[in-house]
Amino acid sequence: MVRTVTPRPPRPADLADVVRQPGAVLVVEGAAGIGKSRLVREVLRHLGPDVLTGRCLPTRASFPYGPVVDVLRGLRVDGSALSPVAGVLAELVPELAGSLPPFPAGGSSAHKVARAVREVLAGRGVLVVEDLQWADEATTDLLRYLVDEPPPGWWLLVTSRRPVTWLRTPPGRPRALVRLRPLDRDGLRVLAGDVLGSNDIPAEFLDELHRRTGGVPVVAKHVLRASADPGVVPLSLRDAVVEQLADLGADVTAVVRAAAVIDEPATEADLAAVSALAPRRAAKAITTAVAEQLLTEVRNGQYLVWVPLVRQAVYASTPGPQRRVIHERAARTARNPRRRAAHHRRAGEHDAWVRWTQAALAEADSETAIRLLDDALADPLLPRTARNAFAVRLSRAALTGIAHQDTVGRLRAAVADGSLGRSARGEVRLNLGRLLINQAGQLAAGQAQVELALTELRDRPALLARGMAALALPSFGSTPVHVQLDWLRAAEEAATAIADPEVLTAVLANRMSALMATGDTRVWAEVAALPRPAGSVKVRRQLARAYLNLADSATWIGHYDTARDYLEQGRLLAGDGSFLPVLGDGTALRLGVAVGEWATLEPDGERLIDQAGEMTFLAADAWLALGWLALWRGDRAAALARFDGAIAAAHDNVPVLISARTGRAAAFLAAGDFAAAGAAADRAAAQVRRKGNWVWAAELVPVATRALLRGDRLDDARTLVTEYAAGITARDAPLAVAALDDGLGALAQAEGGHRAALDHFTRAAHRYAALPHPRWSAQAAESAAQSAAAVGAVDVAATHWITAADTYATLGATRDATRCRAAARPHTESRRGRRGYGTTLSPREREVAALAVTGLTNREIADRLVLSQRTVEQHVAGAMRKLGVHSRTALSEG
């Protein structure tokens, strides 16, 4: 029978069962180092009898019967048991001459040799022939004969790197074929455990090992035995690759080296040109390299050295002068400017490298441009004139793409090494400063760089205006807002002397951001006058930044619907490939947590944190939103960790820091640690006072007031609320206005003025609901219920508690909803059941009816009052029944 096993190796014991049958043949195929010999050894352990092993060698001269001679010369032979034909082996194996019958008359022939070998091998057990791909013609004929006419009591095991199509067994003869493939991740884990003597293999190491070795066992063993980083070529692997190439000859070595230098899928023509071989010789060498699995045909007619570490080993083992020449040839075959520039660079052709890098930059997106320029500037051999130009281009590209710390370091080095001219240095310094502010979160350092740049850009008014505008963003740094607004006025004055639409739009964008961030009512007329998107990519980018900054500022002050509109416009204008959409995503998370859109907020936030990577400043909003979400879901420990993450990421982004410290205060307050809550609130309040922009304290004031009051600091609470009220006067900041009522209610409640507190909390609840900010609306309603209960307004208290419970339940805050329903129960039930209003409308029914007659739908009423749609339907039906009317419009008549 014939058993074919592919692609995963079977158990050695199962293969041994096949081989034990008379005349059986086992063929193990696979690339060099794939584990053929190891599998054969495992099989032999199960077989037990003597093993005869021979190996075919990749010699240029032919040695007939080479592996068989190796086997025979080590045998002990009893000539008395052999026929005269065995004597022909005396000529082939002189070591056996004294034990063989006399040399037969008529001389030797291939047939006589085959018969003689069959006799000698009878009963010998297992014959193993390794590396059959290098077998000479005489050996292949001999093995065919032995398979057709097997000696009694023997089995054949062979290994080969190439398919053994010529070794066929007669019908019915047992034969097992195993084609080995590279190990998968699990197989590699087992191998690593065997070599290292431990199964505690880090997942990251295993992933990198699999990627770099391609799962080829022998390559993985070289790495593991050398205790090397999977990205580093062990010396033993390099030596093994050199030896293998030497065995395969000069032509194969040439095409494999060419493929390693090209380092991407290459056509047969490319490999011929880069290896400098005639097409026919190159084709033959490629065929051999593929058969040896050094090259793989990854696409139709395109070849690659498929194992990354082997590719590195081939490259490293190629002598430097040869590598340079191969790169020269590869440059001529490269099909895109980036690859051509890389080959010219490695060939030492610096002018061509610069020229083709410039061509690659012309068609590169921001991220690709950053990588190209970063890489070029890291090379000390880059010509000085190109270094100046590339540093400026890198500073520009970094502003639009997502830069990395290496890029920041590269730009710092460029302005410090003295090689740049004053104007170029000023531009690089300006862009470095903006990068530090916008992406790295190093606000103080960034502003310092910008201020230095202004002294170097006196003769470049457009960049001067950009620099001044960069210092005018209120959110950033410890500089008071009024000083930053002075910078804004200076930037606007400088912009009057220029006509560059991009710079003018950039200055205008910063003005819009500053006005919105401070609740300045002038912003609405000026936003309406923003230019329409133009064909210029640069102007569109500045408009995108304007709308995204407006969305950010509008979210802080409570213009949530407006923020959503600006966010959508900004995202459409920004497109992909820059850091702007990442900032927009952060704003969307803060907006979502405020308006109660929590369903996907957690995975979206985690995804943004991962996307920001080492530029953690871009993830500050995500950390912040996740902190508030965790707090409102009742997980105080997670909330504190998230708020700490926001503080670490935000650096000098003041509204984020104020909000995160407010969140910490709220978490401590909920845990009953009033001293810690007061301390966190004090830190946040100090930042507000330092900046002088009180609209950013809308989250802080309700929390801080309660924390200070619970800590017996009534005077401090009263001072804070008084400062806050003065600070938001004449400001268009609806969240701040709602928060003022919330803070005043807490003060009145603490001083025993429950009727005043009820009024303040009720207004706060309605104002929060109108934004909408359902979580704080529910909290204010709950506080209103407590004050109503304190003055004996039982029905009002019940209504507020039920409203708060419904809102909490809608948000999924079940613990808060349960608490409010429990508080409402004594005020809504008697011993005989729930108290009713008879034919009189309840307060909530009157509220719903008043909205229904205006034409609002049940859904719209539910959104307005932060109720479920089902609750609104019940209130409408109840009001119509009590008033005896049959239409919504008739409710007004009742």
TrEMBL record:
<dbReference type="InterPro" id="IPR011990">
    <property type="entry name" value="TPR-like_helical_dom_sf"/>
</dbReference>
<dbReference type="GO" id="GO:0004016">
    <property type="term" value="F:adenylate cyclase activity"/>
</dbReference>
<dbReference type="Pfam" id="PF13191">
    <property type="entry name" value="AAA_16"/>
</dbReference>
<dbReference type="GO" id="GO:0005524">
    <property type="term" value="F:ATP binding"/>
</dbReference>
<dbReference type="GO" id="GO:0003677">
    <property type="term" value="F:DNA binding"/>
</dbReference>
<dbReference type="InterPro" id="IPR000792">
    <property type="entry name" value="Tscrpt_reg_LuxR_C"/>
</dbReference>
<dbReference type="Pfam" id="PF00196">
    <property type="entry name" value="GerE"/>
</dbReference>
<feature type="region of interest" description="Disordered">
    <location>
        <begin position="820"/>
        <end position="841"/>
    </location>
</feature>
<keyword id="KW-0547">Nucleotide-binding</keyword>
<keyword id="KW-0067">ATP-binding</keyword>
<dbReference type="GO" id="GO:0006355">
    <property type="term" value="P:regulation of DNA-templated transcription"/>
</dbReference>
<dbReference type="InterPro" id="IPR016032">
    <property type="entry name" value="Sig_transdc_resp-reg_C-effctor"/>
</dbReference>
<feature type="domain" description="HTH luxR-type">
    <location>
        <begin position="834"/>
        <end position="894"/>
    </location>
</feature>
<dbReference type="InterPro" id="IPR041664">
    <property type="entry name" value="AAA_16"/>
</dbReference>
<protein>
    <submittedName>
        <fullName>LuxR family transcriptional regulator</fullName>
    </submittedName>
</protein>
<dbReference type="InterPro" id="IPR027417">
    <property type="entry name" value="P-loop_NTPase"/>
</dbReference>
<dbReference type="InterPro" id="IPR036388">
    <property type="entry name" value="WH-like_DNA-bd_sf"/>
</dbReference>
<dbReference type="GO" id="GO:0005737">
    <property type="term" value="C:cytoplasm"/>
</dbReference>
